[in-house]
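Hello,

Our lab assistant flagged a job as stuck in the queue for most of the afternoon. It eventually completed. Since we weren't sure the result was trustworthy after the delay, we are filing this so someone can double-check. Below is the sequence as submitted and the structure that was eventually returned. Let us know if re-running is recommended.
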Amino acid sequence: MDDSTPYDALIVGGGPAGLSAALNLGRALMRVLLVDADRPRNAATLNSHGFLTRDGVPPHELRRLARAELEAYPGVEVRSRVRVHSLRMSDAGFDAGIGRRAPDETVATRAVLLATGLRETLPDVPNLRGFYGMSLFSCTACDAWELQGRRLALIGETSDLAARARLIARWTAALTVFTNGSDAVTAAEEAELTAAGVTVRRARIAELVGDRGIIEAVRLDDGEAVSIEGGFVRPEWSSDLSFLHGTAPSVDGHGLIRVDHGGRTDIAGLYAAGDATVPGPQQLIVAAGAGAQAARSIVRDSVGVAFAH
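-- returned structure --
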């Protein structure tokens, strides 16, 4: 094959979903190009959990190990700090304009896997970034074990805050929900939470108190300081699919990509896996599994076969 030969698959994103897909496609003798902007959503996280054989591993180390494994497969090419700036359908499948700050090359590919992940916007709370990833987290399945039994906070401004509080209360009997001046928790939900032993504070947050990433209290605009020992934040997530010129797949009301059980979108040859798909942010091991599932679909679709199981 020369440079004019289309790739069998282009993977957009080098998180667990993209890396897992690359590994499985490489093992299927496919010619694969993985491009990664190197801006992972979990960059602030010191340790990730729940990944079988890698519980507690730093996310950047997990990525390093995965990339090292890909080096055994000559058909897999990885380009770091590179973006896909445009993606258009073509006779061969798709043409992608790629480059660092601007497109400086066009590559042809028969299939595309979107493993772009999501961008997150944290609640507008002073100095929250100083604690995020160290004593305040967004994923209960990932980090609640380490915080069990402590006085915890849940900070957010979204309509699912009460539901998240009910989940977090599994790990602690001392949970305070901070709506930061929003109406995220209804009166009925507050009554239900109060009956379950969960406190709701509606005042805006003036500042978070603590040292070197370890939070000690939430100070409110009304002067109250609530002592806590850790907690969770509910970010708002969004995906950037603006590079999909004329190839945008169907998304749900939150902008998450709709896929079938095999990671197929409603556009032939276009697949998606990981956080950017319905239902949204997930554990690393779940995203990796979705990447492997999508890779299996890409391989089977390429030869026109399907199995019931």
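-- support follow-up --
The delay was a queue issue, not a problem with the job. The result is valid. The mean pLDDT is 93. Residues 284-303 form the longest helix (20 residues).
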